[in-house]
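Sanity check record (used in CI):
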Amino acid sequence: MHKPLKPFAAVENIYTPRQRTVLLVSSLIGLAALMVVGLAQYLTAFLAAGILFVVFRPWWVALVHRRRWNHRLVTIGILLVTVVVLVVPFYALSSLLLERLVAFAKNPEQMLDALHKLERATGLNITQQLNVRQLLVQGAARVSGWLPSLASSALNFLVVVGLMLFTMYYLFMQETYFLLGLHRYLPFRNDTLEELGVSLKNNVNANVLGQVLVALVQSILTGITLWIFAVPDPLFWGVVAFFMAFLPVLGTPLVWGPAALYQFSQGHNGQAIGILLVGFIVIINVDNLLRIVLAKRMGNIHPLVTLVGLVLGVEIFGLIGLVMGPLLVSYFLLLMEVFRRENRRAREEEAT
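Expected output for AI-2E family transporter:
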């Protein structure tokens, strides 16, 4: 009996081995780009999962690898901590701010009354120059237009959080395979991968743990300042200042600045001036000093890398860019150093 012939065995492939390699790599890059574009809406979930994996991994190593605790229970505990410490407070604060924004939108007369009092206190004619009533009406219409989309926004938030927690679960449960996969598929030497890992850890320490400490100090200072100068509800606005402190450049002035204007509008000029003095002299300088010191101490990150990275990251990734931005700049500088080192090694090999 005759053996069946393979129909394509005798067909000559038109590509050389080098061309096939180039086309294979190009196909992989193209497919990866399509996947990134398709998941762009939820990319922050995967980035946040990776960052939290680095944040909680020391706990994981201490409890699972050293004390031999059950890895599934430790993973579930880390997920619960993430939900209780990060997700619930963020969602609750967003809801409270939205409720107050809707209340202002429905009652613009309260803000107009405060502006009239501010005019009488400062002698400036604000309402006619800015046509504030028209702006408030437009703002009320805009906020009212947001209300129908709240359900879909909440659903999108739940999807992002679910993807983040799901990704974190498998990163911890399959930690060994994940780390081996990085060493196997990333196109870097082992020493370069170790340097990239150290850079990631330093950036997370400086821009997550350090930033949390900076935000906590600023929120405490803001809350105490508002309490001393008799601003209503200082505890709530102190909590708001904690989250606002994560925003570069703007930050806590978005809280104590309007508080000072409110005191001006109520005729409490001394208290308003006190808030401004404490804000500009104490709170802002503490922010700048702590950011630089903690970035250098906790992660050995140059202050210029942190500053450029914050501006770049927030523009591209939003709030999570507070970590991703400095990480991108650090990786760029590190890969430039790797490129220089590899070229020097190649020249030395050619010389010998």
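The chain has two domains: 40-178, 187-345. If this sentence no longer matches the regenerated tokens, the check is flagged for review.
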